[in-house]
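Note to self: the last two entries modelled the partners one at a time, which told us nothing about the interface. This time every component goes in together.
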Amino acid sequence: MMDWLDSSIAAVKNKEMWGAFGIAVLRMTIILVASRVALWILHKSIDRIMLERASKYTASQARRMTTVGKLLRNVTAYIVYFIAIMLVLSEIGINLGPLLAGAGVVGLAIGFGAQSLVKDVITGFFIILEDQFAVGDVIQTGQFKGTVEVIGLRTTKILSWTGEVHIVPNGMINEVTNFSVNNSLAVVDVSVAYESNVDQAMQIITDTMKELKHDDLVKEPQVLGVQLMNASGVTIRVIAECRPNTHPVVARAINKEMKEAFDRNGIEIPYPRMVTYQRSMKEG
Amino acid sequence: MMDWLDSSIAAVKNKEMWGAFGIAVLRMTIILVASRVALWILHKSIDRIMLERASKYTASQARRMTTVGKLLRNVTAYIVYFIAIMLVLSEIGINLGPLLAGAGVVGLAIGFGAQSLVKDVITGFFIILEDQFAVGDVIQTGQFKGTVEVIGLRTTKILSWTGEVHIVPNGMINEVTNFSVNNSLAVVDVSVAYESNVDQAMQIITDTMKELKHDDLVKEPQVLGVQLMNASGVTIRVIAECRPNTHPVVARAINKEMKEAFDRNGIEIPYPRMVTYQRSMKEG
Amino acid sequence: MMDWLDSSIAAVKNKEMWGAFGIAVLRMTIILVASRVALWILHKSIDRIMLERASKYTASQARRMTTVGKLLRNVTAYIVYFIAIMLVLSEIGINLGPLLAGAGVVGLAIGFGAQSLVKDVITGFFIILEDQFAVGDVIQTGQFKGTVEVIGLRTTKILSWTGEVHIVPNGMINEVTNFSVNNSLAVVDVSVAYESNVDQAMQIITDTMKELKHDDLVKEPQVLGVQLMNASGVTIRVIAECRPNTHPVVARAINKEMKEAFDRNGIEIPYPRMVTYQRSMKEG
Amino acid sequence: MMDWLDSSIAAVKNKEMWGAFGIAVLRMTIILVASRVALWILHKSIDRIMLERASKYTASQARRMTTVGKLLRNVTAYIVYFIAIMLVLSEIGINLGPLLAGAGVVGLAIGFGAQSLVKDVITGFFIILEDQFAVGDVIQTGQFKGTVEVIGLRTTKILSWTGEVHIVPNGMINEVTNFSVNNSLAVVDVSVAYESNVDQAMQIITDTMKELKHDDLVKEPQVLGVQLMNASGVTIRVIAECRPNTHPVVARAINKEMKEAFDRNGIEIPYPRMVTYQRSMKEG
Amino acid sequence: MMDWLDSSIAAVKNKEMWGAFGIAVLRMTIILVASRVALWILHKSIDRIMLERASKYTASQARRMTTVGKLLRNVTAYIVYFIAIMLVLSEIGINLGPLLAGAGVVGLAIGFGAQSLVKDVITGFFIILEDQFAVGDVIQTGQFKGTVEVIGLRTTKILSWTGEVHIVPNGMINEVTNFSVNNSLAVVDVSVAYESNVDQAMQIITDTMKELKHDDLVKEPQVLGVQLMNASGVTIRVIAECRPNTHPVVARAINKEMKEAFDRNGIEIPYPRMVTYQRSMKEG
Amino acid sequence: MMDWLDSSIAAVKNKEMWGAFGIAVLRMTIILVASRVALWILHKSIDRIMLERASKYTASQARRMTTVGKLLRNVTAYIVYFIAIMLVLSEIGINLGPLLAGAGVVGLAIGFGAQSLVKDVITGFFIILEDQFAVGDVIQTGQFKGTVEVIGLRTTKILSWTGEVHIVPNGMINEVTNFSVNNSLAVVDVSVAYESNVDQAMQIITDTMKELKHDDLVKEPQVLGVQLMNASGVTIRVIAECRPNTHPVVARAINKEMKEAFDRNGIEIPYPRMVTYQRSMKEG
Amino acid sequence: MMDWLDSSIAAVKNKEMWGAFGIAVLRMTIILVASRVALWILHKSIDRIMLERASKYTASQARRMTTVGKLLRNVTAYIVYFIAIMLVLSEIGINLGPLLAGAGVVGLAIGFGAQSLVKDVITGFFIILEDQFAVGDVIQTGQFKGTVEVIGLRTTKILSWTGEVHIVPNGMINEVTNFSVNNSLAVVDVSVAYESNVDQAMQIITDTMKELKHDDLVKEPQVLGVQLMNASGVTIRVIAECRPNTHPVVARAINKEMKEAFDRNGIEIPYPRMVTYQRSMKEG
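The predicted structure of the combined assembly is written out below.
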């Protein structure tokens, strides 16, 4: 870059560069237009091959093809842009090849500064190869949870249920939790007072759960037993296997049913309790 | 730099440098003035091409052009300043080219110290290329949330709703949340007492929500069900899809309507409860 | 890569490359098909040798063979894909060998960016070699706990009890806790009021524990003594050795038995207590 | 440094160095005195050009000139000290040039150890160039908030409102919040009891705010609505745009006015509430 | 690796390699069997020399020999496996020597990726050399506490008291706490009410402690004095030196004795106190 | 180091080294004694020049001279020790020069390991050069606050007000807060009950503050206004400018005066309040 | 290492190495025995010179000699073990010299992996040189507090007051607090009720403190004043200078005296207070 700088300083000084300026601008315009056309053709082809035919396959194959199709669009865009930029730079006399292959202070700084970019691409490549998650899955990575919209070469876009788009570099996706592969488990803890008969309460819950109907329920809910005894009461745990990622919906349904069953059977949900000892005090 | 130092020490010693001093100062002044003029012309051109024509395009295209226009102003300023500094330094006999291309202790320190600068520029480049967010979007990165004012090559300026300007280096923008792409979801949790009829309360909320009118509302609010049962009451969740980033406004409107509907129907919002057992105590 | 870029730019310019294009596509298709067939044969062989014969061995040997079998499937997939990609790239004239062996800015960035990939593979190799955990074990690493599904060369999949799949890179598995090797210990703390006779309470617990029957119990539960005296009462600790990873189930059984024994013997679980001094106050 | 060490050890051994000692001390004293004089002249010139003329310009230009003037004083001090130290060292026969340009263990350690120094200078340079903040602005970076006193090449001094001086290296100023660029927003949340008429309360607040006079107020305060409904009451939010960084003063004025308006209209600020159920208990 | 890849690609192409395949498999099988036999002999010898003779020595020497014996088993396993893998690889024509000694992108990545492996081995070596802890000691490192089961060259296995096995890489064992070297100190804090006579309470505790008998007690417990005065009472601290790592057992014994002594002497453990002022209020 | 090791192993083998041993020990003793004498003379000179004359200058100059004097003692000690160790090592035939200038595995490890040492020295140098703080100032860095005792080349000693000495490496002193440069501000927040007349309370505080006399007070305390309205009362803020680092003393004086003024005027400091609703409950 | 591996593989193949095996084992045994003897002699000499004569010197000198003596034992052990291992390895034909001086992948990994080892030694060296703390001092570094037992070249052993031994690598001892250099300050905060006369309470405390006798007390305790006014009462602070590290003992003595003085003078320690407003409520 320094060599180029020296020569361009020289060029600026004697003003000889201005003659070839017009032609170079014309050629660069052609390169940019051609690259946009090439990209449009490539994206159309990818859509036809990967995305539109996806419906012909099983759900698992289609999921895979959608993911790879969106990635390919992303990758071809980078490649076409990269080639176009290289061509444009070579038009104005800059050849980045030797610079990138050489070393020195600038190279050291670029090498260090670009390492997270390289890590993003490597990790993105393995996310696809290992099929860790696909477009449409609900995942959580770090503090971001939502539905995967796009897996790009460098970043993944996650759409949260409240509408925000989280854009996460792939290199930051170290540990990822996928909620869409297996059935989920709705876990509901309910407290009953010490004065209640625990066996009776568990029986009522079991009976209520047997009658629970919900589209997302895979197995009948199961009463696990006395999870905890603390100052205000006895906590009973209920679990219910349901279709992937539907556990909040199922838990709300279980909550509503239990509230009504407890109302019918006169079982009280315990308030916090306290024993108070009143003492009289001589006025201060 | 050391070579230069040695020679300048030599120069200072025999005082020969002072003759050429006046001419060099004059030439440097000319360089600085010329660079300011060049920068003014470039910025005017960018404004005319990118910013003023923005109104002729669709909202999405205009958004993009505004962002790129502000970036181009930023980039041209860096390039012009960089060339001017190089010319000034070459006037006083310092050629930074070999230094930057060489290595050694100074080079090592600069290479390490400049890596975050390089990372800033690379990340800034990809923020624009991948269209992660544009000027005018409401985003959150780390603990900083606000409206994007400028996306520069090295830093992004975010204007918080209380008036502060957050200046964040692009290299620190690892994970970014964009609130302006999709519709938002206002989530309101309301508690009713155990003694209340839950079905009736949900019916009242549903009826109230049906009559809610708000400009930012996209779909009619929806009552999800019993979200939680805890010591003080039953929590019912209401959600409402609204235009991007308007969820606090919509949530305030829902709060007000529900408060009035509950007042009309005599549904109480539960206070914390406690059961107290009084015991007498022998005086200590 | 730069050399290739230069030549491909040259190629794109004079359009000579298009002749050989058709043949190269054909050969690449053959390579890809052949690699899928080879992978299918290898996976079948591994399944036959490692997984299907597992039943002939003792539990420990079978566990080991299942783990190594799943790993071998994983490793052979990487090797076959790697060779296929190299062959495809050599078809289109790119030889990555010299690039990877050389150095420079790109090499520096790749070397830094790939270090976590290398660390993943090294750590994965030692997890298998040292038999830290096997497929089917319940482990916890960081905040992720669950049953190991697959130990791959680069990542380990952990299935949580609520159904989520955690995908953790092996390099992040620094410190791992294995719950499936030894018997577990269920620890139950129960509070009794100060007014109660502590000796009598401990006797009742001991008697109840002697009669406790549970399939997962390895030894009779043991009453350790007075663990803590705090403002609301005296805490007594009970421990019970049980089969690996069954301690929540056993703790629930102990909770239920103790609740019923306390009900029978009139021992109260203490509520929080407070002494209140009432003072009259002149009205403000 | 080792070469020098070897020769100086040799010198110390044969005591030949002591002859030239007196002359060297004399020359070094002259260098030190001359550098202090040069620095004094440079600082006087900077003050005359940059700081004293600042009053002739607009506020924004003056702000910029003050910042750059203080920085120039800082930079010229470093340069003069650096040249003086180099001259002194060359007097006693040490030439640091080759050492700094060379490599080896010492060089490696220095290169690594000095990277944060280089990062400080680079970041400081960009703070000035990008006009992120200027002397006199109120900024926050990390946990340090206050008025900027000096922006140096390596450190920035921030004066907190309670009188402490925070000295922060520029390299630690990653993300900075500037409070002095735009108008601030005073946000006041006030609670009213559930029994109150919310519409009436909001009307009273609106009326009170209309009559609020304050020098720092830019726009009339605005009542946003019901921000929150919780166990003790209804929270109403009021916002008021005011001059930069005056929001605590304006919020205090709003607090005082509202307290008096509520007193006049008999609206109570709600205390925490609790429902207590008293049960008798058989004595333990 | 690339050279090998190129040649193996060539080999795969012309299918000449398949002739020598059978012989190579045979030789590799012999190598693997021989290495298992060698390992079996080495482990038997180590057991005989180090572990079985341990009983002839003093406790400290035996402890050391057990630790070193288990480590030697671990180290010989690594060496034998390493040699076997090298021999197998040389059978199939891969010589890793030049690769590991060379450099380049792959070497850089491996060098960085393997640094934590090297750190593990170095730290493990010093743990043994400095006798920081031995097999059977109770230690805590980070959040993991338990009895040391094996100190390997790369990892240490710690068995927690609830049955989990923590596997910690030696390089993560930066700061380690050893509970098994010195006598432990059981610390028990007990509160008495303000109304109690502090001197009398301390006397009762002292008397009770004098009569305390416990196998793990090394010295008679000691009453330190008034540790804290807070809102609910006066806290008195008791300490008791006991055999290493038995302080929870001794603390439970002290708790039980004090509870009974307080019951006998009518000293009350203070409940939290609060002064309440009741005011009448005009109905809202 | 290896070369030396090889030769010394050879030497140990043929026992020839023992002849020259006595003489070397004698010479080393002389070197050590001479270095102690040289250090004593240097320290005496520094004390005479820098520390004893300090009283002749203004406070600011004296402060600077004390700091630099203590640093010079520290630096000369390092230099004399360094030369002595080099001479001793050269006596026993070890020349560290080539080792330190060379590279290799040992050099790499030393270079990395020594980087924090280099950073300490560089930062320490700038602390003095930039006059960030001086001996006797009260500073806070990280969690350590106290009076600076010594600023050394590598570490700074801070004496906390409770008597501990904190020894902090200069490289850890990234962000430092100096309490001794400017006047401090004592900030006192006091609550009054809602029933009180806020204007009257503020008037009483203002009157009391006008009469407050304290040696450390620089300006008359100022009543800022209503800082906060919360559940228990109205918070009024008072500030008072006082001499550097005396704000805890002044705040205690203000506390005492206000307590007495409130007692005289019958203004109550509000206790927490709560509204309780008693409900009867059917016995469970 | 690879060269050695290749040759030893060759050796293992043709079984020629077994002839020289017996002699090598014999020689290695002699080396090991000789090194143990040499170490025993060196340790005895160090003990005689450094530790046993310590009693002849002042406390400060003796403290230093004990520390250095223990370090010397540690260092000589490392040197003797290092030479012995080198001799043993040279017996079996491995020369580590060239390996350590060379570079490559293995060297890179070792260099990175060993950097914390080097940092430990450098920091340990400066802890001794700067006399930061000595054997017998009470220090705190990070979360570990206790009495220093040994300062080794690589690790420092700290004995906590409850009996655990903390082993901390010197490189982790960044910031260290030494409690044994200066007198400590016992700080006791005591609350009195608002109704109490603050002046009288302070007078009683002052009088009580005047009569306090304690061996560890250096100066008479001092009553600082009203530290805090909060909801429950007025906090008065008392400080007392005492001998190093005896502040918990002195604080306990002050607590006991004040409790008794308050009992005698009828000053009450305030319980938390609350104002309750009782409202009747229509039954829900």
